[in-house]
Amino acid sequence: MTRILLKDQISRLKDQFGSDIAVVSNLDSLDELFRKYIGRNGLLRDLTSTIKDLSAEEKRTCGTELNQLKDFLTSKLEEAKMTLKRKLEGGEKIDYTYPFSAQTGREHPLYSTFEEIITIMERLGFEIVEGPEIEKEEYNFDFLNIPKEHPSHDIWNTFYVSEGKVLRSHTSPVQVRTMLSKKPPIKIVAPGKVYRPDTVDAGHLPVFHQLEGLYVDENVTLPHLKGTLEVLAMQLFGEVETKFRASFFPFTEPSLEMDVSCVICKKKGCPTCRYSGWIEILGAGMVNQKVFKNVGYPENKYSGFAFGLGIERITMIKYQIQDIRYLIENNFRFLKHFI
Ligand SMILES: [Zn+2]
Question: Which pLDDT tens digit goes with each residue over 201-217?
Fold first, then answer.
Protein backbone atom coordinates (compact mmCIF):
# COMPACT_ATOMS: atom_id res chain seq x y z
CA MET A 1 0.00 0.00 0.00
CA THR A 2 1.36 3.36 -1.00
CA ARG A 3 -0.02 6.78 -0.24
CA ILE A 4 -1.24 7.20 -3.86
CA LEU A 5 -3.06 3.92 -3.66
CA LEU A 6 -4.56 4.94 -0.32
CA LYS A 7 -5.83 8.20 -1.79
CA ASP A 8 -7.48 6.22 -4.55
CA GLN A 9 -9.07 3.87 -2.03
CA ILE A 10 -10.32 6.80 0.10
CA SER A 11 -11.92 8.37 -2.94
CA ARG A 12 -13.64 5.12 -3.88
CA LEU A 13 -14.86 4.61 -0.32
CA LYS A 14 -16.33 8.12 -0.32
CA ASP A 15 -18.18 7.40 -3.57
CA GLN A 16 -19.59 4.18 -2.19
CA PHE A 17 -20.55 5.96 1.04
CA GLY A 18 -22.30 8.67 -0.99
CA SER A 19 -24.52 6.20 -2.79
CA ASP A 20 -25.20 4.21 0.40
CA ILE A 21 -26.30 7.24 2.45
CA ALA A 22 -28.50 8.57 -0.33
CA VAL A 23 -30.91 5.65 -0.01
CA VAL A 24 -31.11 5.49 3.79
CA SER A 25 -34.74 5.88 4.84
CA ASN A 26 -34.83 4.73 8.46
CA LEU A 27 -32.71 4.75 11.60
CA ASP A 28 -31.96 1.00 11.43
CA SER A 29 -30.36 1.20 8.01
CA LEU A 30 -28.44 4.28 9.18
CA ASP A 31 -27.06 2.27 12.12
CA GLU A 32 -25.98 -0.34 9.65
CA LEU A 33 -24.03 2.31 7.75
CA PHE A 34 -22.31 3.38 11.02
CA ARG A 35 -21.24 -0.19 11.52
CA LYS A 36 -20.27 -0.70 7.87
CA TYR A 37 -18.00 2.34 7.68
CA ILE A 38 -16.74 3.34 11.12
CA GLY A 39 -17.65 0.32 13.22
CA ARG A 40 -15.07 -1.91 14.91
CA ASN A 41 -14.90 -4.18 11.84
CA GLY A 42 -15.82 -1.51 9.37
CA LEU A 43 -14.30 -0.36 6.08
CA LEU A 44 -12.37 2.50 7.70
CA ARG A 45 -10.64 0.08 10.02
CA ASP A 46 -9.79 -2.20 7.05
CA LEU A 47 -8.19 0.73 5.33
CA THR A 48 -6.30 1.79 8.46
CA SER A 49 -4.85 -1.70 8.82
CA THR A 50 -3.31 -1.46 5.34
CA ILE A 51 -0.90 1.29 6.34
CA LYS A 52 0.84 -0.60 9.12
CA ASP A 53 3.74 -1.62 6.89
CA LEU A 54 4.50 1.91 5.67
CA SER A 55 7.45 4.01 6.78
CA ALA A 56 6.96 6.16 9.88
CA GLU A 57 6.71 9.33 7.83
CA GLU A 58 4.22 7.90 5.31
CA LYS A 59 2.22 6.42 8.17
CA ARG A 60 1.87 9.88 9.64
CA THR A 61 0.67 11.50 6.39
CA CYS A 62 -1.69 8.65 5.59
CA GLY A 63 -2.90 8.61 9.20
CA THR A 64 -3.89 12.27 8.92
CA GLU A 65 -5.80 11.53 5.72
CA LEU A 66 -7.59 8.61 7.33
CA ASN A 67 -8.52 10.75 10.33
CA GLN A 68 -9.99 13.35 7.99
CA LEU A 69 -11.94 10.57 6.29
CA LYS A 70 -13.25 9.42 9.67
CA ASP A 71 -14.35 12.96 10.53
CA PHE A 72 -16.03 13.28 7.16
CA LEU A 73 -17.92 9.99 7.52
CA THR A 74 -18.92 10.69 11.13
CA SER A 75 -20.25 14.17 10.43
CA LYS A 76 -22.21 13.00 7.37
CA LEU A 77 -23.73 10.12 9.35
CA GLU A 78 -24.67 12.40 12.28
CA GLU A 79 -26.19 14.92 9.91
CA ALA A 80 -28.25 12.21 8.22
CA LYS A 81 -29.37 10.95 11.62
CA MET A 82 -30.64 14.41 12.66
CA THR A 83 -32.52 14.92 9.39
CA LEU A 84 -34.10 11.50 9.63
CA LYS A 85 -35.15 12.08 13.27
CA ARG A 86 -36.75 15.43 12.45
CA LYS A 87 -38.66 13.82 9.62
CA LEU A 88 -39.88 10.97 11.81
CA GLU A 89 -40.87 13.33 14.64
CA GLY A 90 -43.29 15.01 12.26
CA GLY A 91 -41.47 18.23 11.34
CA GLU A 92 -42.07 17.62 7.69
CA LYS A 93 -44.93 15.20 8.07
CA ILE A 94 -48.26 16.28 6.62
CA ASP A 95 -51.43 14.77 8.01
CA TYR A 96 -53.93 15.00 5.18
CA THR A 97 -56.75 13.79 7.42
CA TYR A 98 -56.34 16.71 9.90
CA PRO A 99 -59.62 18.73 10.12
CA PHE A 100 -59.32 21.86 7.99
CA SER A 101 -60.87 25.08 9.28
CA ALA A 102 -60.01 28.29 7.43
CA GLN A 103 -61.15 31.61 8.89
CA THR A 104 -63.26 33.23 6.24
CA GLY A 105 -63.73 36.97 6.14
CA ARG A 106 -66.71 39.11 5.25
CA GLU A 107 -67.78 42.70 5.09
CA HIS A 108 -67.33 44.92 8.16
CA PRO A 109 -70.72 45.64 9.86
CA LEU A 110 -70.27 49.33 9.05
CA TYR A 111 -70.03 48.61 5.34
CA SER A 112 -72.89 46.10 5.47
CA THR A 113 -75.08 48.91 6.85
CA PHE A 114 -73.76 51.26 4.19
CA GLU A 115 -74.55 48.78 1.44
CA GLU A 116 -77.99 48.11 2.87
CA ILE A 117 -78.92 51.80 2.95
CA ILE A 118 -77.53 52.42 -0.53
CA THR A 119 -79.49 49.44 -1.90
CA ILE A 120 -82.74 50.75 -0.36
CA MET A 121 -82.14 54.22 -1.78
CA GLU A 122 -81.29 52.84 -5.22
CA ARG A 123 -84.58 50.94 -5.20
CA LEU A 124 -86.28 54.27 -4.49
CA GLY A 125 -84.66 55.70 -7.61
CA PHE A 126 -81.74 57.58 -6.07
CA GLU A 127 -78.44 57.70 -7.92
CA ILE A 128 -75.08 57.40 -6.08
CA VAL A 129 -72.74 60.37 -6.37
CA GLU A 130 -69.40 60.83 -4.66
CA GLY A 131 -67.32 63.90 -3.92
CA PRO A 132 -63.82 64.76 -2.68
CA GLU A 133 -62.91 64.51 1.02
CA ILE A 134 -60.69 67.59 0.78
CA GLU A 135 -63.29 70.20 -0.05
CA LYS A 136 -63.48 73.91 -0.84
CA GLU A 137 -64.42 75.79 2.30
CA GLU A 138 -67.20 77.58 0.39
CA TYR A 139 -68.80 74.31 -0.73
CA ASN A 140 -68.64 72.95 2.82
CA PHE A 141 -70.22 76.13 4.29
CA ASP A 142 -71.09 79.22 2.24
CA PHE A 143 -73.11 77.61 -0.56
CA LEU A 144 -75.09 75.75 2.12
CA ASN A 145 -76.11 78.99 3.76
CA ILE A 146 -73.75 78.47 6.71
CA PRO A 147 -72.52 82.01 7.47
CA LYS A 148 -68.93 82.84 8.37
CA GLU A 149 -69.84 83.51 12.00
CA HIS A 150 -71.46 80.07 12.40
CA PRO A 151 -69.56 77.98 15.02
CA SER A 152 -69.10 75.09 12.57
CA HIS A 153 -66.53 77.29 10.75
CA ASP A 154 -64.48 77.28 13.93
CA ILE A 155 -61.17 75.38 13.87
CA TRP A 156 -62.47 73.37 16.83
CA ASN A 157 -65.24 72.00 14.61
CA THR A 158 -63.52 71.66 11.24
CA PHE A 159 -60.10 70.48 10.04
CA TYR A 160 -58.47 73.13 7.86
CA VAL A 161 -56.05 71.75 5.27
CA SER A 162 -54.88 75.03 3.75
CA GLU A 163 -56.29 78.44 2.87
CA GLY A 164 -59.84 77.84 1.62
CA LYS A 165 -59.59 74.03 1.87
CA VAL A 166 -61.09 71.81 4.58
CA LEU A 167 -61.58 68.12 5.26
CA ARG A 168 -65.32 68.06 4.60
CA SER A 169 -67.25 68.05 7.88
CA HIS A 170 -70.37 66.59 6.25
CA THR A 171 -71.34 65.06 2.89
CA SER A 172 -73.54 68.07 2.00
CA PRO A 173 -70.93 69.69 -0.29
CA VAL A 174 -71.74 66.86 -2.74
CA GLN A 175 -75.24 68.42 -3.01
CA VAL A 176 -73.61 71.72 -3.94
CA ARG A 177 -71.33 70.13 -6.53
CA THR A 178 -74.26 68.24 -8.09
CA MET A 179 -76.54 71.27 -8.23
CA LEU A 180 -73.76 73.42 -9.71
CA SER A 181 -73.21 70.88 -12.47
CA LYS A 182 -76.79 70.07 -13.49
CA LYS A 183 -80.37 71.23 -13.46
CA PRO A 184 -83.20 69.35 -11.69
CA PRO A 185 -84.58 66.76 -11.55
CA ILE A 186 -81.87 65.60 -9.14
CA LYS A 187 -82.29 62.51 -7.06
CA ILE A 188 -79.01 61.49 -5.45
CA VAL A 189 -77.44 59.92 -2.40
CA ALA A 190 -73.86 60.77 -1.48
CA PRO A 191 -72.10 58.29 0.80
CA GLY A 192 -68.66 58.91 2.25
CA LYS A 193 -66.20 59.78 5.00
CA VAL A 194 -66.43 63.04 6.91
CA TYR A 195 -64.07 64.63 9.43
CA ARG A 196 -64.50 66.60 12.63
CA PRO A 197 -61.95 67.32 15.38
CA ASP A 198 -63.88 65.35 17.99
CA THR A 199 -62.25 63.70 20.97
CA VAL A 200 -62.52 59.92 20.74
CA ASP A 201 -65.06 58.51 23.19
CA ALA A 202 -67.88 55.96 23.20
CA GLY A 203 -69.96 58.10 20.85
CA HIS A 204 -67.46 60.11 18.78
CA LEU A 205 -64.66 59.58 16.28
CA PRO A 206 -62.79 62.23 14.29
CA VAL A 207 -63.51 60.29 11.08
CA PHE A 208 -66.92 58.82 10.45
CA HIS A 209 -69.31 58.02 7.62
CA GLN A 210 -72.39 59.80 6.41
CA LEU A 211 -74.96 59.38 3.72
CA GLU A 212 -76.62 62.40 2.26
CA GLY A 213 -79.82 62.35 0.24
CA LEU A 214 -81.10 65.08 -2.07
CA TYR A 215 -84.22 65.22 -4.22
CA VAL A 216 -84.88 68.40 -6.19
CA ASP A 217 -87.58 68.93 -8.78
CA GLU A 218 -90.67 71.01 -9.32
CA ASN A 219 -93.28 70.38 -6.62
CA VAL A 220 -91.28 68.22 -4.21
CA THR A 221 -93.08 68.46 -0.86
CA LEU A 222 -92.61 67.60 2.80
CA PRO A 223 -94.82 64.46 2.49
CA HIS A 224 -92.37 63.19 -0.20
CA LEU A 225 -89.59 63.55 2.37
CA LYS A 226 -91.53 61.87 5.15
CA GLY A 227 -92.65 59.03 2.90
CA THR A 228 -89.10 58.39 1.67
CA LEU A 229 -87.64 58.38 5.19
CA GLU A 230 -90.40 56.13 6.51
CA VAL A 231 -89.69 53.55 3.80
CA LEU A 232 -85.95 53.79 4.62
CA ALA A 233 -86.57 53.30 8.37
CA MET A 234 -88.96 50.35 7.86
CA GLN A 235 -86.59 48.57 5.48
CA LEU A 236 -83.62 49.16 7.78
CA PHE A 237 -85.13 48.34 11.15
CA GLY A 238 -88.27 46.35 10.35
CA GLU A 239 -91.62 47.33 11.87
CA VAL A 240 -90.85 50.57 13.71
CA GLU A 241 -92.87 53.67 14.46
CA THR A 242 -91.47 56.98 13.26
CA LYS A 243 -91.90 60.55 14.41
CA PHE A 244 -90.60 63.89 13.23
CA ARG A 245 -89.49 66.77 15.43
CA ALA A 246 -88.89 70.35 14.35
CA SER A 247 -85.20 71.28 14.25
CA PHE A 248 -82.85 73.78 12.67
CA PHE A 249 -80.19 73.48 9.96
CA PRO A 250 -79.02 76.48 7.91
CA PHE A 251 -79.44 74.61 4.59
CA THR A 252 -83.04 73.42 5.12
CA GLU A 253 -86.25 75.25 5.90
CA PRO A 254 -88.23 73.83 7.58
CA SER A 255 -85.81 71.40 9.25
CA LEU A 256 -86.67 68.29 11.17
CA GLU A 257 -85.19 65.33 12.97
CA MET A 258 -86.50 61.83 12.68
CA ASP A 259 -86.87 59.35 15.54
CA VAL A 260 -87.73 55.67 15.35
CA SER A 261 -89.28 53.66 18.16
CA CYS A 262 -86.47 51.91 20.07
CA VAL A 263 -85.60 48.70 18.22
CA ILE A 264 -84.17 47.19 21.39
CA CYS A 265 -86.84 47.72 24.06
CA LYS A 266 -89.86 48.36 21.76
CA LYS A 267 -90.61 51.60 23.62
CA LYS A 268 -90.44 50.06 27.10
CA GLY A 269 -87.29 52.06 27.94
CA CYS A 270 -83.64 50.96 27.94
CA PRO A 271 -80.16 52.53 28.23
CA THR A 272 -79.81 52.81 24.40
CA CYS A 273 -82.89 55.04 24.08
CA ARG A 274 -82.12 56.66 27.46
CA TYR A 275 -85.46 55.28 28.68
CA SER A 276 -87.39 57.49 26.25
CA GLY A 277 -88.53 54.67 23.94
CA TRP A 278 -87.32 56.65 20.89
CA ILE A 279 -83.99 56.89 19.05
CA GLU A 280 -82.96 59.79 16.84
CA ILE A 281 -81.64 58.51 13.52
CA LEU A 282 -81.27 61.45 11.15
CA GLY A 283 -81.64 65.12 10.32
CA ALA A 284 -83.56 66.36 7.28
CA GLY A 285 -85.62 69.18 5.81
CA MET A 286 -86.82 71.01 2.74
CA VAL A 287 -83.89 72.61 0.89
CA ASN A 288 -83.58 76.27 1.84
CA GLN A 289 -84.36 78.50 -1.17
CA LYS A 290 -81.16 80.42 -0.32
CA VAL A 291 -79.17 77.30 -1.27
CA PHE A 292 -80.95 77.16 -4.65
CA LYS A 293 -80.13 80.84 -5.14
CA ASN A 294 -76.46 80.17 -4.30
CA VAL A 295 -76.16 77.50 -6.99
CA GLY A 296 -77.90 79.73 -9.54
CA TYR A 297 -81.32 78.11 -9.78
CA PRO A 298 -84.21 80.46 -10.64
CA GLU A 299 -86.17 81.72 -7.64
CA ASN A 300 -89.09 79.59 -6.43
CA LYS A 301 -89.02 77.32 -9.49
CA TYR A 302 -87.78 74.25 -7.67
CA SER A 303 -88.32 72.65 -4.32
CA GLY A 304 -86.52 69.74 -2.77
CA PHE A 305 -85.66 67.78 0.30
CA ALA A 306 -82.38 66.73 1.84
CA PHE A 307 -81.43 64.40 4.64
CA GLY A 308 -78.24 63.15 6.23
CA LEU A 309 -77.51 60.24 8.49
CA GLY A 310 -74.48 58.87 10.32
CA ILE A 311 -73.64 55.31 9.28
CA GLU A 312 -71.85 54.55 12.57
CA ARG A 313 -74.93 55.58 14.51
CA ILE A 314 -77.28 53.45 12.40
CA THR A 315 -74.88 50.47 12.65
CA MET A 316 -74.72 50.84 16.44
CA ILE A 317 -78.51 50.92 16.73
CA LYS A 318 -78.99 48.05 14.29
CA TYR A 319 -76.46 45.74 15.93
CA GLN A 320 -76.87 47.07 19.48
CA ILE A 321 -73.24 48.16 19.78
CA GLN A 322 -72.68 50.35 22.82
CA ASP A 323 -69.31 51.88 21.96
CA ILE A 324 -68.40 53.38 18.57
CA ARG A 325 -64.73 52.45 19.11
CA TYR A 326 -65.57 48.76 18.57
CA LEU A 327 -66.16 49.67 14.92
CA ILE A 328 -62.54 50.68 14.35
CA GLU A 329 -60.61 48.36 16.66
CA ASN A 330 -60.62 45.38 14.29
CA ASN A 331 -60.94 43.07 17.28
CA PHE A 332 -61.54 39.69 15.68
CA ARG A 333 -63.64 38.42 18.59
CA PHE A 334 -66.01 41.38 18.10
CA LEU A 335 -66.11 41.12 14.31
CA LYS A 336 -66.81 37.37 14.52
CA HIS A 337 -70.29 38.17 15.84
CA PHE A 338 -71.16 39.41 12.37
CA ILE A 339 -69.81 36.41 10.45
ZN1 LIG B 1 -84.94 51.42 24.27
Answer: 888 889 999 999 999 99
